[in-house]
From TrEMBL:
SUPFAM superfamilies: FAH. Residues 27-233 form the Fumarylacetoacetase-like C-terminal domain. GO terms for molecular function: acetylpyruvate hydrolase activity; metal ion binding. The keyword Hydrolase applies. Gene3D superfamilies: Fumarylacetoacetase-like, C-terminal domain (3.90.850.10). InterPro entries: Fumarylacetoacetase-like_C, Fumarylacetoacetase_C_sf. The keyword Transmembrane helix does not apply. Keywords: Hydrolase, Metal-binding, Pyruvate. The lineage of its organism: Bacteria, Pseudomonadati, Pseudomonadota, Gammaproteobacteria, Oceanospirillales. This is Fumarylpyruvate hydrolase. It comes from the Bacteria. PANTHER family: ACYLPYRUVASE, FLUTATHIONE S-TRANSFERASE.
């Protein structure tokens, strides 16, 4: 097959302790899925259902647990912010899934970061425009290797802590149990508006206390059931 322009490479995430890879299709993000973060962003977590936005697959940066990784400070922003997230990898697709089907659709989990150009996102929101400029840009989704699903792992993750440190200082600290909408509920709701496919990723939301990083800062994201993700910001 011949292409009229150079074909862009696809993105895949390694499977932990395996020589297999997960080919990334679409990347769905859940907005404000921790009550405290929802409140700090001006929403009512008891009233608002989950809402979704997307990052392009090219935003994904495969990174290693417990190793040095880096991303570049992006163009056109002066407010580059972190959001620590649990990422779910979908292995079985479908639409209008039940809770049991949603649970069965999970291939595995990973630690991730939803990096955000907050000033550009804020400008878009004020004008009622889409968020892509603030969310979907190069290297905005560093994600670690995928740990394959097991019942024990799922149970551990459901009550696992999630935290983010910047230069050794705790910035975000919560527990996956504080998700407003559980992993399975998120998948159910998402499947009501998109037919899910194997290869999809879901970034399940971030706890409160999101904030900025600058060149030279080192972020450390931890979900003990999965591992630690160290990512530095370079120019």
């Amino acid at each position: 097959m011949k292409y009229i322009v150079e074909k862009q490479p696809s993105v895949s995430l390694p499977i932990n302790d395996s020589d297999e890879f997960f080919p990334v299709g679409r990347v769905y993000c859940v907005g404000r899925n921790y009550a405290a973060h929802s409140r700090e962003m001006g929403d009512d977590p008891d009233r608002d259902p989950p809402f979704f936005f997307c990052k392009d697959a090219s935003c994904v940066v495969p990174v290693s647990y417990e190793a040095a990784n880096s991303i570049r400070y992006p163009m056109s922003t002066s407010q580059f912010e972190y959001e620590a997230e649990l990422v779910v990898a979908i292995g079985k697709g479908g639409a209008y899934l039940s809770l049991e089907q949603a649970k069965a659709s999970v291939l595995g989990y990973a630690v991730g970061l939803d990096m955000t150009r907050r000033d550009l996102q804020g400008q878009a929101k004020k004008k009622g425009r889409p968020w892509e400029v603030g969310k979907s840009f190069g290297q905005s989704a560093p994600i670690g290797p995928i740990e394959l699903y097991s019942t024990d792992l799922a149970n551990n993750i459901a009550s696992s802590d999630i935290s983010l440190l910047v230069n050794g200082e705790v910035k975000q600290s919560s527990n996956i149990a504080n998700l407003t909408w559980s992993i399975e509920e998120v998948i159910v709701k998402l499947s009501e508006v998109f037919e899910l496919r194997p290869g999809d990723l879901i970034m399940t939301g971030t706890p409160e206390n999101v904030g900025p990083v600058v060149v030279g800062d080192k972020m450390l994201v931890s979900i003990p059931a999965l591992g630690e993700l160290a990512v530095s910001v370079t120019d």
